[in-house]
Amino acid sequence: MRLALIGGGFVKHTDNFHINKRIVELVEKTNPKVLFIPTASNDNEDYITEFTEIFEKQLECHVNVLRCINNNPSEAEIKKMINSADLIYLGGGNYINMMEKWKEYKINQRLVEALQNDTLIAGISAGAICWFKCGIRTNYEGEGYIESPGWNMINKIFCPHYNQMDRANEFHRLLLQNGNENEHAIALEDNCALYLTNDTYEIIGEPSKAWEFQVIENELLKQKFIERAKTSI
Q1: What are the phi and psi torsion angles at 187 (to 5°)?
Q2: What's the Cα-to-Cα distance from 221 to each of 155, 172, 182, 183, rounded to whole Å?
Q3: Is this model's pTM higher than 0.85 or not?
Q4: What one-character DSSP code corresponds to residue 40?
Q5: CA of residue 155 relative to chain centroid, distance
Q6: How far is CA 154 from CA 157, 167, 194, 204, in A?
Q7: Which residues cross the membrane (predicted)?
Q8: What is the homologous superfamily of the domain 3-224 according to CATH?
Q9: pLDDT (tens digit, 9 = 90+) per residue, 50-100?
Q10: Residue 220 near residue 226, CB atoms below 8 Å
Q11: Where are the domains of the chain?
């Protein structure tokens, strides 16, 4: 498993550039092939343009884009695009729409297979939540935030954009409300990423922006994610 989880931020902003630069370095190839999947943003063309300009012009990658909102890619096309990528980057946006569309096109199955085959995958916000047991997202049908299930490739609860106070407070409440002893969770602020392999991790960005949580005897324990050479995730 090689998975880079990004708490949030904008591709074109300076704060996120060093994260994307490090992720490209982790591919360990010259001019790597990057597949961008912007489904959560409704395949927003401005987002695609920003991503392509950064990754092609500044990071020297070859970018391909998998569009499945207005386009109707075949199963063979999707398989070829995912299997040929050195790095797959999952964009942020509407988590529910993303998950529904990926299920429709069986992109979810292909992504899990790619991860299991050691393809490097990066996901920001919605593109990161999907890998966890569950995560907190914006309530698109009302106010506040709500918990949604993921694929449970990481048996923890996840919160992106942890620097947003209202989201952070709701995340704390949900962890305590679940009432599960020894519940574990991870939260990342914007402009911070966590790179995971099967037995190691690396914080990309400021370590003070990465947090871990545990519920013990109905109390929420919070501490900063302390970088080590090796650990079990």
Answers
A1: -135, 140
A2: 18, 10, 10, 10
A3: yes
A4: G
A5: 15
A6: 8, 21, 13, 19
A7: none
A8: Class I glutamine amidotransferase (GATase) domain (3.40.50.880)
A9: 999 999 999 999 999 999 998 999 999 999 999 999 999 999 999 999 999
A10: no
A11: 3-224
